[in-house]
Amino acid sequence: MNDKRLSIRLLALLFAVLIFSTLFLSSCSGSNDDECTVENLPTGKIGCLMGSLETVFLQDTYPEAEISYYNSLPDAIVGLKSGNVDYVSTTETNIALYTKRIDGIKKLDISYFPTQEAFCLNKNRVDLISQINGKIKEYKESGRIDEISRNWSDCTNYIVNEVPKRTEGPVIVVGTTGEMEPINFILNGELVGFDVEVIGNILYDLGYQVEYKTMAFGALLPAIESGKVDIGAADITVTEERKKSVAFSDVYIERCQSVIVRDEDNESISIAAIKEGLKNNLIKEARYKLILEGLKMTALLSVTSLIFGTILGILLLFMKRSRFRLLSKTVSVYSVIIQGIPIVVLLMLVCYVFLGDVDASDIVVGMLTFGMFFSTGVLAALENGLNNIDKGQYEAVSALGYPRIFGFRKIIFPQLTKNSLPVYRGEIIAMIKATAIAGYVAIQDLTKAGDLIRSRTFDAFIPIIIVAIIYFAIIWAITLFIRWFEKKDDRNRRKREVKL
Hints:
The chain is about 60% helix and about 10% strand. It contains 18 helices and 14 strands.
């Protein structure tokens, strides 16, 4: 009898231990969305989205960890799979998508750093903030926020509801990244996602037209401060520091962060994998259209910058060779400033400072930025060409009694062309390659198109190679054309010398 009672007690004790262990493990696993903990957070090289708040948390909590910053989460995933980082930290919403979509990665049983997401606006838009807050409250009480969230919870079967749009009324510009699936991303050529559906419906209900601009996450806050963008909708976390620069709406959703790691070695590249990659990156969802649109923008940006920069460079040459010292000194200072500022910083200065209060199109912003950058190269090329012409030839033109314009056109200009073209060709190539950073401020060029495709396919190889091949083809064609022109000009010059 006593043995039977002892057995029962042992079984009860074992059962209690099992229940306690289960509860303990579940509390540490991070599966509970209501509480975020930091037990067992790994250290090492951690990839994070630039501007995300978990970077500050990680630096303060784990100072020994090495943080690598990425402009987009797809880039961070590429860094993880290629071994550049050991972990990637982001929201559990994104991780649920990545682990289903991407082979070779897995989620760690860690949940930490709860964040509150809201829309951010310019501080001057108090009226708009109040209107949006009213709608967020209404959507929460009616359960509409939760309903929209469920639409984007299963990456294998998104429920994409068409967001109604108005054709009349004030226009509100919404800035987002277009690279944060399922928050905001490109699907079949259209910008969709949880944030897009929420803010789109809110603005429709308020009677506004909506215009979206995609840009790098780090450029969102400067765009809002400068007034280029009215609302930022890109899973933006509310912080006291950010409140000093921009205003926030009420919180519309709360999320926790987690970590993903590599689960297996990367697969080797094969012909079959390349074919499948081309199909996935170009044919599926007609993604080749993004490449074509990006190529069109890059070509337009390059041509307009070439024309503007050449004209500005010639004008700078006349100013520098002017008798007025003030003009000459002004050109020297201008050249030092433009050459001393990184092109991406110059792009942001033009977009958010010089044209901050001006409703300028993307092409104008790009043309001014890359045109100014190119003009200093044109100035250097022309100066190099003129300096290599013997001063005696200028004197000979005057001594022979030729008009200055005739002498310049017949004697000086052919030599100037010959001496300047090689440097000019190099500056054109440098300018075209510089346009690759245009997507940082919402200009959807060729490189940005590749980024948008990579944000959907998470392919580290095909989109980058496609963009690289197109850029190479453009620059190769331009190089051949300029060299052909050089040879033709040289043949014409020799014919003239024979006649003489």
